[in-house]
Amino acid sequence: MAAAKGKKGKLTVADIAAAAADGRKLTMLTAYDAGFAALVDACGVDMILVGDSLGMVVLGYDSTVPVSMEEMLHHCRAVNRGRSRALLVGDMPFMSYQTGMRDAVVNAGRFMKEGGCDAVKLEGGMEVCDAVRAIVRAGIPVMGHIGLTPQTAGNLGGFKVQGRDLASAKKILAEARALEEAGVFALVLECVPGELARAVSERTSVPVIGIGAGAHCDGQVLVTHDLVGLFERFAPSFVKKYAELAPAMKEAVSCFIKEVGEGAFPGEEHTFSSGEPLAGLLDEEE
Ligand code: KIV
User: Fold this and answer.
1) What is the largest CA-CA distance in the chain?
2) Which of 43, 145, 167, 216 has the most beta carbons within 10 angstroms of its beta carbon?
């Protein structure tokens, strides 16, 4: 069941906390434009994340690293125009919060003031706790992100499951506790064994939103393009495709090309008629 079902107006971080405290499973999905935002919002998703995954999914980069503040803000504004109820979370891009407390607070503030976001998300464990504290102190809700952190995946041995051995599992649990203590309102936990995700969810008071982290989290997040089968470059094994939109779209586009070539489109029903007979139009011109 969605957070604060029946509530009028936009959801707040307090609604998210209350829903999790009631034992309701939270949902978060990505959107990068107004159209997708309106669609997922109308379905009742609790949170919309303008993820820096937009770098790969819609901007064509090879990773999330090149994504800039300006690109993120441009897409946040579009998503904000399309959503009406879901809490809007903006993903702080690489190097927008690692270069000092001032940069972290100023950039988080831009997500709120210029992007229309309700909260920001940033990746990392102990090394980002000071930044989290500073942003929270400025009155901006922060969502943490630990486990597999795509912005620094190279340091983690690539895009692979984290926390498989006892030492690294303990480290992730300690990071979750440190972020909770620093003031995050929720945590994304990416690509870890289900057993570890369960331990993190049970041992922290903030909602844990899993992605590739099994069923025992307080909620789940996916990249919407993955969920609907619209991103073909790669598909992580933890994704469930609820639709296959890419093949359907290719078929539709191929039909259009074929029908235009054959003169089958546009037909009579797609053509406007004139208000009065225009039979003499060409003669008059001559
Ligand atoms: O950038 C993103 O879309 C994310 C989610 C996958 C959690 O960080």
Assistant:
1) 87
2) 145
- Is the pLDDT at 1 greater than 50, yes or no? no
Question: Looking at 71, 123, 180, 190, which residue is catalytic?
Answer: 190
Residue 211 Cβ inside 6 Å of ligand 1? The answer reads yes
What is the spatial distance between Cα 16 and Cα 25, in angstroms, rounded to a whole number? Answer: 10
- The answer, yes or no, to whether any atom of ligand 1 lies below 6 A from the CB of 193, is no
d(CA 22, CA 82): 28
Tell me the residue length of the chain: 286
Spatial neighbors of 211 by CB under 8 A, at least 6 apart, are 188, 189, 190, 191, 220, 221, 222, 238
Q: Which of 67, 149, 211, 224 has most ligand 1 atoms within 8 Å of its beta carbon, as the pocket-test mutant?
A: 211
Nearest Cα to Cα of residue 184 among 142, 219, 146: 142
Question: Does the 13-245 domain belong in CATH 3.30.390.30?
Answer: no
Distance from C-alpha of 74 to C-alpha of 56, rounded to nearest angstrom: 16
pLDDT tens track for 195-234: 999 999 999 999 999 999 999 999 999 999 999 999 998 8
Q: Measuring CA to CA, which residue among 144, 151, 153, 135 is closest to residue 174?
A: 144
pTM of the model: 0.95
User: For this structure, is 259 an active site residue?
Assistant: no
Query: CB of 30 closer than 6 A to ligand 1?
Result: yes
Does an H or E element contain 117, and which? none
